[in-house]
Amino acid sequence: MKNVEENKNFQNLFHTAYDLNQRQVQALQYLLAQGEGSYVNPSSYEVLCGISRTTAISDLKSMEKMKLVEKKKAGKYMRYYGTQVLRDAIKKR
């Protein structure tokens, strides 16, 4: 029951404070659950949320503008990592 309540608090925090959609909240939960050094890329985000490439890139760029994720190039691929802003937002709640 505690995990359900924590999940609702997490969703409410990011829906209200950052106006994120459910897919974006899901990606942030994934990043935090996987731990330090984890990332999502457009392809994994597409699979995670069942969306198109265009939507995946748009969502990730939106979160990047909010400083919740940061983009890093890995060869020819882009990876999005959780930022300190994301971790701080979780600690404040």
User: Which range best describes the helical content: under 10%, 10-25%, 25-40%, 40-55%, 55-70% or over 70%?
Assistant: 55-70%
Q: Strand count, sense and closure of the main sheet? A: 3 strands, antiparallel
CATH fold naming: Arc Repressor Mutant, subunit A
- If helices are DSSP runs of H or I spanning 4 or more residues, what is the number of helices? 5
Give me the oligomer status. Answer: single chain
Task: Describe the protein's architecture and organization.
It is a single chain. This protein is of the alpha+beta class and 93 residues long. It has a single domain, classed as Winged helix-like DNA-binding domain superfamily/Winged helix DNA-binding domain (Arc Repressor Mutant, subunit A), CATH 1.10.10.10. Helix content is 63%, strand content 15%. The chain has five helices and three strands, in the order ααβααββα. 19% of the residues are buried. The mean pLDDT is 88.
